[in-house]
Amino acid sequence: MSYIKVIRLKPNEDIIAFVERGEDTIKLIHPISFYIDYDTHEMKQSLVLRYWLPINMIADNSVIISLYDVLFITDPKHSFKEYYLNFLNKEEIISNIDRTIIKGILDTIDTDTIH
User: Full-prediction pTM beyond 0.90?
Assistant: First the structure.
């Protein structure tokens, strides 16, 4: 079973993805890199998402990495999880099976707790 997690890699790169854990590895499914862009001139910040893998060049949008390359794995807030799932839906990079799973997850998120 896979779970949506935030992963920080050793070069301080942050990824959100569906994660399946192996013994010494993790499989990242639909990994998306993210960072906070700070605009000091306008005093605002923006969340920037970008593809972590060259999805148009690979057969499957997943990769297996060594746990040695991971600093930590944690749970995202519900609002970030929903943002990620909506991003995947909009980008149409997921299969119909994945879309059904995502819809089920979105249906279980309590929108009253999202701010």
Answer: no
